[in-house]
Design goal:
- It is a single chain.
- This protein is an alpha/beta fold.
- It has 19 helices and 18 strands.
- The strands form three sheets. A nine-stranded mixed sheet has the order 2-3-1-4-5-6-9-10-11, with helices on both faces. A seven-stranded mixed sheet has the order 12-13-18-14-15-16-17, with helices on both faces.
- α9 links the parallel β5 and β6.
- α4 crosses α10.
- The protein is globular and about 65 Å long.
- The two termini are 20 Å apart.
- The relative contact order is 0.10.
- Forms a heterodimer with GatD.
- Pfam families: Mur_ligase_M (PF08245), MurT_C (PF08353).
- GO terms for molecular function: acid-amino acid ligase activity; ATP binding; carbon-nitrogen ligase activity on lipid II; zinc ion binding.
């Protein structure tokens, strides 16, 4: 444990990262059973939260509720959701003797990667296991939805009777796990039929661009029929062949009303309570996240008052609606890493027809998934004509720009800033004189070589010093300064008037890179800083 904590401290000291995983990695290497050993000391046990979307927010809601109920909550708040992240979260709270500090009145709430959930369950033996949803995500890593579902089904069969399953009734795949459980099962879901997409004419998501990832009955393979569908495959369903249908939720949202962009009023019914809760986050997906947390709280015997106060006082988690002030503007960070997630972010942003200042960041690093073809299943058409300014960045900026062109965005509407200069462009700039005429010819030739979708407002057009030929010393040292996420952020901020909001929608590694840039500017603390 001492070695693991030392490795984490060194990682932070050298600014290599938060040290949120290396602590657990070193500790597990030296003591493979470290998770089981430390978790067994928690007086109130563990809760595990998994799903494609919403793990961080759901575990945050639940942690806030449990703290307001008087418990000490330990979790992997930094989002390191593999086993090494869980091990690290426990090790940093351990004494050199191998015992947890202040294990009394303590409970752990861990968000867990979908594929790692079976191993985590075996090691932690949780009091409750929460399955929020299952969508297509990182196909190059997980495979199709059914691959993860098969892992979950096998895992649930082996759960002890002491583990309560908390399942999304509106997701056919997660709801079906209840049939295999040996212990208690609680379901949560929406009952407000005004949210049914079929009744929302002109909203764009009821048809072509809903990425439906669970179409077939898990029993017989027939297609489900929906009496109400809220998004993707979430809704009220029944199999016409074998009769399998949505289970009745234990925790239900009877009515959902939007007060403001950041404020949802939800009438919630549980077996013992009926009341209104204010969710301080946008989006229907956050209603599901709150319902999941409420259901777990019910399973743990938490009273209604801390449930209400915990949710209503919740602060947005790292990149999940997080708000940052910069130069008189507000930045809002909304992580979106798969088609369903991005569709719901776009619906939240543009359903009222309000123009938004936007920065999209599309990366294809390992943690994002190498295959970015999923952007063609996203309803970018919904945003067409509603972007007050539009900046596109990331390792696959040009792919996203092409998709946006097909969605109806004119190339001249976009400021396109790739992560690095194209190799051909580097060679072109390197062969040109450093004077104004050389840069101009290089820029013109570069634009001629770009596809129609991106031969518009690329980064070489948005550097005023370069445009005027009066390059600063820094620009003279860097012949092509118009690339990289820091540049993209600066351009997007410049295009957002003082007093207005810039909405930033990045994939996962784009979010991490943005946070590093905001940390460098002193605008936000390191994501691993803070106290549970």
């Amino acid at each position: 444990m001492i070695s693991g904590r030392a490795a984490g401290a060194l990682s932070r000291r050298l600014r290599l990262g938060g040290g949120t995983s290396i602590v657990g990695l070193v500790a597990q290497r030296l003591y493979p059973d470290i998770i089981r050993h430390l978790a067994a000391q928690l007086e109130h046990g563990s809760v595990l939260v998994t799903g494609t979307n919403g793990k961080t927010t759901t575990s945050g809601f639940l942690a806030a509720i449990l703290r307001d109920a008087g418990l000490r909550v330990w979790r992997n708040r930094e989002g390191a959701n593999l086993l090494r992240g869980v091990a690290g979260a426990l090790v940093v709270r351990a004494l050199p003797s191998g015992n947890l500090r202040r294990a009394g009145q303590a409970i752990s709430v861990f968000e867990i990667d979908e594929a790692v959930m079976p191993q985590a369950v075996r090691l932690l033996e949780p009091r409750a296991a929460v399955f929020i949803n299952l969508f297509r995500d990182q196909l190059d890593r997980y495979g199709e939805v059914e691959s993860v579902a098969a892992l979950w089904r096998q895992m649930v069969k082996g759960l002890p009777e002491t583990t309560t399953l908390v399942l999304n009734a509106d997701d056919p795949t997660t709801a079906s796990l209840g049939e295999l459980a040996r212990g208690p099962v609680l379901y949560f879901g929406l009952e407000d039929l005004t949210l049914d997409l079929s009744g929302q004419d002109g909203q764009g998501t009821a048809g072509t661009y809903q990425a439906v990832d669970s179409r077939s009955c898990v029993r017989c393979g027939s297609d489900y029929r929906y009496s109400a569908r809220f998004y993707s495959h979430m809704g009220h369903y029944q199999c016409p062949h074998c009769g399998l249908e949505r289970p009745a939720p234990t925790v239900r949202a009877l009515q959902v009303r939007q007060d403001t962009f950041d404020r949802l009023r939800v009438t919630v019914e549980t077996p013992t309570q009926l009341g209104e809760i204010v969710i301080p986050l946008p989006g229907l997906y956050n209603v599901y996240n709150a319902l999941a947390a409420i259901a777990v709280a019910q399973a743990l015997g938490i009273s209604w008052e801390p449930i209400v106060s915990g949710i209503e006082q919740f602060k947005p988690a790292f990149g999940r609606g997080e708000r940052v002030q910069v130069a008189g503007r507000t930045l809002r960070l909304l992580l979106a890493k798969n088609p369903t997630g991005l569709n719901e972010v776009l619906r939240t942003l543009f359903s009222e027809g309000t123009p938004r200042h936007m920065l999209f960041v599309l990366n294809d690093n390992i943690a994002d998934g190498r295959d970015v073809s999923w952007i063609w299943d996203v309803d970018f058409e919904r945003a067409q004509g509603l972007t007050a300014s539009l900046t596109v960045a990331g390792t696959r900026a040009f792919d996203l720009a092409l998709r946006l062109k097909y969605a109806g965005f004119a190339p001249e509407e976009m400021t396109i800033i790739p992560s690095t200069p194209l190799r051909a462009l580097e060679e072109l700039i390197g062969s040109q004189p450093r004077g104004r005429k050389g840069r101009g010819r290089g820029r013109a030739r570069h634009q001629q070589q770009q596809p129609d979708a991106v031969a518009a407002k690329t980064s070489t057009k948005v550097s005023p010093a370069a445009e005027e030929g009066a390059a600063s010393p820094q620009e003279r040292a860097t012949p092509f300064p118009g690339y990289g996420l820091a540049t993209a952020l600066e351009r997007a901020i410049e295009q957002t008037p003082v007093g207005e909001t810039l909405f930033i929608v990045p994939t996962y590694t784009g979010l991490l890179e943005l946070h590093r840039e905001l940390e460098r500017r002193g605008l936000t603390p390191h994501y691993w800083e803070g106290r549970d």
